[in-house]
Amino acid sequence: SECREIIYLIHVACVCAGHNASRDVVTLVKSVLFHRRNPLHFHFITDTVANRILSSLFQSWMVPSVQVSFYDADELKSEVSWIPNKHYSGIYGLMKLTLTKALPSDLSKVIVLDTDITFATDIAELWGIFRKFTDKQVIGLVENQSDWYLGNLWKNHKPWPALGRGFNTGVILLYLERLRRIGWEQMWRLTAERELMSMLSTSLADQDIFNAFIKQNPVLVHQLPCFWNVQLSDHTRSEQCYTEVSDLKVIHWNSPKKLRVKNKHVEFFRNLYLTFLEYDGNLLRRELFGCPTQASPESLQKALEELDEDDQCYDFRRERLTVHRVHLYFLQYDYTPTEDNTDITLVAQLSMDRLQMLEAICKHWEGPISLALYMSDAEAQQFLRYAQASEVLKNRKNVGYHIVYKEGQFYPVNLVRNVALKNANTPYVFLTDVDFLPMYGLYDYLRKSVVQMDMAHTKKALVVPAFETLRYRLSFPKSKAELLSMLDMGTLYTFRYHVWPKGHAPTNYAKWRTATTPYKVEWEPDFEPYVVVRRECPEYDQRFVGFGWNKVSHIMELDAQEYDLMVLPNAFMIHMPHAPSFDISKFRSSSSYRNCLNTLKDEFHQDLSRKYGSAALKYLTAQRNI
Amino acid sequence: SECREIIYLIHVACVCAGHNASRDVVTLVKSVLFHRRNPLHFHFITDTVANRILSSLFQSWMVPSVQVSFYDADELKSEVSWIPNKHYSGIYGLMKLTLTKALPSDLSKVIVLDTDITFATDIAELWGIFRKFTDKQVIGLVENQSDWYLGNLWKNHKPWPALGRGFNTGVILLYLERLRRIGWEQMWRLTAERELMSMLSTSLADQDIFNAFIKQNPVLVHQLPCFWNVQLSDHTRSEQCYTEVSDLKVIHWNSPKKLRVKNKHVEFFRNLYLTFLEYDGNLLRRELFGCPTQASPESLQKALEELDEDDQCYDFRRERLTVHRVHLYFLQYDYTPTEDNTDITLVAQLSMDRLQMLEAICKHWEGPISLALYMSDAEAQQFLRYAQASEVLKNRKNVGYHIVYKEGQFYPVNLVRNVALKNANTPYVFLTDVDFLPMYGLYDYLRKSVVQMDMAHTKKALVVPAFETLRYRLSFPKSKAELLSMLDMGTLYTFRYHVWPKGHAPTNYAKWRTATTPYKVEWEPDFEPYVVVRRECPEYDQRFVGFGWNKVSHIMELDAQEYDLMVLPNAFMIHMPHAPSFDISKFRSSSSYRNCLNTLKDEFHQDLSRKYGSAALKYLTAQRNI
C-alpha cells in the first residue's frame, strides 16, 4: 500500500497563547496523534510565549509524518482588536475569525480546534465530513449544548443572535477556499459591526460573531453530529448525544471548571483525558506504515547509521544521539531584564527525587532561576500539581521550569544542564547543583561582584566556595564568620572533604578563611567548582551521560578558553544531605562502564586539543599523571 | 439503548501459573479492557500462586462488567501429565487441551489467549468471527508464521505433523459446545498417543498436538486472518500480515527474547505494549454506558451514598472508602515455613522515594519480609527493573512485594501497612518502618525471644528500642555496648529525641541502658514503639490517612486488647536520615486538616469504648489531659 499522504494530509489549526494553553494543547495533540493514521499538519496561531514553547517541543518531539507551522498572533491582533470582548479568553478568543487571512492562501480546508478538546477517535473521520458538504456549505459546526443562545438563562439575559441554540466553535470544519471566495473577511466584519451597535461587546468571543453570521446565512453551515463536540459545560444537553462509548468522538472541556465539571459520565471523560495527560509522548513517535517520511534530520540519521553496535561503548554513544523531548517554560514565567545588564540566573537541573529542594532554593535566591527537570510525562503532571499547591513556588514568576522528558537508560545530566543554561535570560549565570543552598544574600553579592570584577570585558569564572553538612537540621549560617566557626566545630565541612577532596581543593579553603578580596586560583585535574560565568560560556559536553566527569569536563574547557578562576571571598554555598539517589544507571557502574568513561575522556581530550591547540595537551598530561 | 450484555458477553480463557505469568497477564488484560465495549468474562486456569494474585487483583480492581472465574490447574494436571513435553512452559503449556473439561459445561464458546498477547483492537471483533464458522468448524486459528513445521530448520529437524506451516495456538477461537459434541477429549488423546510413539515428546507443548489433530481433521479448522496473531518470533513472516497500522489486531510476543526481538516494526509494537504496561489501571474502571452492572459490592455503594459532601472531613472519609488495586507477590516469592513455629516476618510499607532502603534492610534482616509498596503502574514497572538489576534483591526469595496502586490525594498509610501485615506468612510479625535498619542479628534474637517470652500462649508486644542518626555515613554499631557509646558521643540519639520525644519515651531508655532482661512498660498517650506481635494482632485503623496518628492508634488498640508491652534489653534499630518526603498531602496540612484529624481521633476513641468497654475510656481521658 502506498503512503496515505497521497490520499490526504489533514490540516489542523489552533489558536494558542501563553504558558497554560501551551501546556493544555499538548494533551489535545497527544489524543489526536494516538488515534491518527494519516499525516498531519498542525497550524498554530501563537503569541511569542507559545511559539517558543511549541516550536522547541515539536522540534525535539520528532513525530514522523507531522508538520508544524506557526503564525504570529501579534500580526493578527489589529484584525480583531477593535471588537470589545468580555470573554476570559481575551483577544485570542477572537482570532479564529482571521484564519482565512492567517493561514496560507493555498490551504483549502482546515479543522479548527480549541485547546481544551480531547479526541477519542481518528481525526480522519472528522476530516472525511468535508466530503459531505453541499456546494454551498463553507463551515461545519456542532450545535451548542447549553441554553445560552436561547436567551432565557436569567432576567434580561440578551445573547447575540443565533439559529436556535446556536453553534459551538470549539470544533470547526473550515472550508477556507470557499470562505475566501464568498468574501468571508468582509462578511463577518459587517455582521460584527452591525451587532455591536446594539450589543456593545461580545460575551463568548468569536462564537457570538460566528453565530450572528450563521443566523444571517444559514445555508452556509453544515451541522455536524453532536458527538463531534460533546460539551461538558454545566447544564449541558450533551448526554442526549451518545448512547454508547463508541459514539463519543470529541470531548470539549468548555466549562471554566474543566475536569471538575458535573456530568453523569464525567468519570469516563476524565479517564480519557487523564490517559493522554500522562501518556508517554515518546510512544507517539511511531511511524505510519508505508509513509517513509523522516522525522529526524539527516545528520542524525547518518550519525545513527555510523554507530557500531559492537563498540563496547555503544550504549553511551547511542544515548548521546537520543533527542529528548523538551517542554520549555512548563509553568507561568515572567522575567523583565534589569537595565544595568548585570543580572545573574541560577542554573540547575533535577529529577523528581529533588523536588523538595525547590522551595528552599527559592528562599535563598531571589533572582531569576532556570531549572531543567528530567521527568516522565506522568511525573511532569505530578510536579505541576506540586508547584500549584506550593505558596512559595506559586508566588515566584522569575523561575523558568523546563521539562526534559525521560528516555533511555542513562541520566543525560549534561544535556539537561545545557537546557537550563541555554534558557537563562540574563547576561550571567550561576552554575550550581540543586542540592546546594546559596548563602542568604548571594544573589546581591554576585551582582556586585560581576561589576567589580568587570565581567563584561574580561573572561572570568567566579568561584563560589562549596561546603557541606551531613546533618538535616542545620541552622544555616548567616555570615562567613558563622560559617567558619561551624567549620571549626565540625558542624560543616568543605564539600566532599571525606570522599573526594580533589574536586574542590584548588579553591584553597585555607586562603579563603582570611581572604577579603577575590583571588585567582589555577586549574588542576578534577577541579569542579561552582562558578558564575557569562551566559555565552561553552556548553556542557553531552558525551558524558550518567555519572562521572560531567562538571570536570566543563571547567576544563573554561580553562582551555582561558577563563580566569577567581574565588570570591564573601560567597559560600552549602550542600544539603540527601539519601543516595535512586537511579537505575548506578547499577550499570560495572567495569565496562568505567572503561567507557575512560574512552570518552580520551576522546574529549583529543577534541580539546583539536579545538584549542597544543596548549590543551596539558589536560591529557595531567590526566595521565594521576 | 440496552446493555450489550443482551447482545453478547465475551468469554476469554487463559492459562496462568506463577509470579511472572501473573504479572504478564495483567498487560494483556489491560489491552483488552482498553478497547472493549462489551461485558467480559475471564476464565483463568491457575496454580495456587496465580490464583492468590489474580483473585485479589480483580477483587480490588472492581472493573464494571467484568466477571472472573478461576479453575484449579492442579486438578487438571493428571489429564496431561502423561505427555512428555520439552517446551519451556512445562505442564501448563499443555493445559489448553483440557479446556472443554475445565470450563463450565454450559459454556459454548471461548477465546483462548496466551499471556504474552497484546490487543490493538476491540476483542468483540475477534469474537464476531465465531459467526463466520461453517457448521463443521470447531476451532479458529492463525497460521504459524515461522518455518518450524516445514521441518527444514536444521538437518534432521523433525517437527510434529502439521498442515503446511501449521497453526499457532497463542490465539484460539474454541467452539466448546461443538468440540464436546464431536468427542474432542478422546480425539486429541488418540492423536497424541499415536504421534508420541514416534515423536517421544512434544517440542511446542499443546501446539504440536493441536497441529497433529488438525492435520487429521482439516475440515474442523477455521483459519483466521493472520493479523489476529502477529507473531514476533525471529525469522517470522509476520510482516506480510499487515500493510497499515489499522490492520494490526493482536500482537504475540512469542519469541523467548520478548521485547528485544528483531523485527522491522518492532518499535511500533513495543510502544503499543509499553502503553499498556504502564497504563494506569484505575482508568479502566470506567463503566460501559447502558450496562448498569455494579462492580463494587453493595455495602460500599451504601457507604458512599451515606457520605455527606458538606462534612468538612469528607475527603478523609471518602479516601477511606477508596478501594485500591492490590497486586500481591509482584515478584518471585518462595518461603517455606519453619517447623518450630517461631518465625517472624519484618513488615513495612514504602513508596518510590524509599526504594534505596531495600538493599540495606535485606542485609540487616535475613528472615522473611512482607513489603507493601504504594505506587503507580508506571512506578511499579520502574521498581521491577530496579529489583531485577539488584544482586541483593534478586538473590532473596523470602521477600513478598505487594503493590498497592496509588489513587486519590492522601497517602493511605494504614491501608498499605495492613496489606503488608495480612500477607505475612509467619506466626509473628515485626512491625517496623522502612527507614529503619534493624541491628545485625535482630532476626535470630527475636526468634529466641519469641520462645523465651512464651508468645504462643501469652499476649505480648515485644518492643524493639528505636534510635536515630542524623548523619549519612554511620558506621553501624555492632553491639549494644557500641550503640551506648555512640549515644554518649552524640553520634546517635534516641528516636525523635529532638522533635517528638513522647513517641518513644515510655520505652524508658535510661532503664534500657543497663537492662539485661525484658521489662514491662505501661502504655502512655502518643506512644508508638516498633513491636513484635503475633500476626493475628488488630489491623491498623484505616481511617487515619495521610499523616498523624497512624501508629499511635494501633498501639492504643494493642493496649486495649491487654497486650503486655515488653522492652527487649538486647534489641535495637536505627532510623536512617532521609530528605523530607515529597508528598503532596503535606501541603494539605491546613487547620481544617488538623481539625479533621481531631474529629477522627474522637471517633476512634468512641469506637474503642464501644469495642472494649469502659476500660477504654482511659484513652479519651489521657487524650484530653494533653
Automatic annotation (TrEMBL), chains A, B:
Keywords of the record: Glycoprotein, Glycosyltransferase, Golgi apparatus, Manganese, Membrane, Metal-binding, Multifunctional enzyme, Signal-anchor, Transferase, Transmembrane, Transmembrane helix
Membrane topology label: Single-pass type II membrane protein
Any GO molecular function: xylosyltransferase activity
Organism, as annotated: Astatotilapia calliptera
Name this polypeptide is given: LARGE xylosyl- and glucuronyltransferase 2
Cited PANTHER family: GLYCOSYLTRANSFERASE-RELATED, XYLOSYL- AND GLUCURONYLTRANSFERASE LARGE2
Keyword rRNA-binding part of the UniProt annotation: no
Reaction(s) catalysed (UniProt annotation): 3-O-{(1->[3)-alpha-D-Xyl-(1->3)-beta-D-GlcA-(1->](n)-4)-beta-D-Xyl-(1->4)-Rib-ol-P-Rib-ol-P-3-beta-D-GalNAc-(1->3)-beta-D-GlcNAc-(1->4)-O-6-P-alpha-D-Man}-L-Thr-[protein] + UDP-alpha-D-glucuronate = 3-O-{beta-D-GlcA-(1->[3)-alpha-D-Xyl-(1->3)-beta-D-GlcA-(1->](n)-4)-beta-D-Xyl-(1->4)-Rib-ol-P-Rib-ol-P-3-beta-D-GalNAc-(1->3)-beta-D-GlcNAc-(1->4)-O-6-P-alpha-D-Man}-L-Thr-[protein] + UDP + H(+); 3-O-[beta-D-GlcA-(1->3)-beta-D-Xyl-(1->4)-Rib-ol-P-Rib-ol-P-3-beta-D-GalNAc-(1->3)-beta-D-GlcNAc-(1->4)-(O-6-P-alpha-D-Man)]-Thr-[protein] + UDP-alpha-D-xylose = 3-O-[alpha-D-Xyl-(1->3)-beta-D-GlcA-(1->4)-beta-D-Xyl-(1->4)-Rib-ol-P-Rib-ol-P-3-beta-D-GalNAc-(1->3)-beta-D-GlcNAc-(1->4)-(O-6-P-alpha-D-Man)]-Thr-[protein] + UDP + H(+); 3-O-{beta-D-GlcA-(1->[3)-alpha-D-Xyl-(1->3)-beta-D-GlcA-(1->](n)-4)-beta-D-Xyl-(1->4)-Rib-ol-P-Rib-ol-P-3-beta-D-GalNAc-(1->3)-beta-D-GlcNAc-(1->4)-O-6-P-alpha-D-Man}-L-Thr-[protein] + UDP-alpha-D-xylose = 3-O-{(1->[3)-alpha-D-Xyl-(1->3)-beta-D-GlcA-(1->](n+1)-4)-beta-D-Xyl-(1->4)-Rib-ol-P-Rib-ol-P-3-beta-D-GalNAc-(1->3)-beta-D-GlcNAc-(1->4)-O-6-P-alpha-D-Man}-L-Thr-[protein] + UDP + H(+)
GO BP term, pick one: protein O-linked glycosylation via mannose
Cofactor: Mn(2+)
CDD domains tied to this protein: GT8_LARGE_C (cd06431)
Any single Pfam family the record assigns to this protein: Glyco_transf_49
Main location: Golgi
Recorded metabolic or biological pathway in which this protein acts: Protein modification; protein glycosylation
CC per GO annotation: Golgi membrane
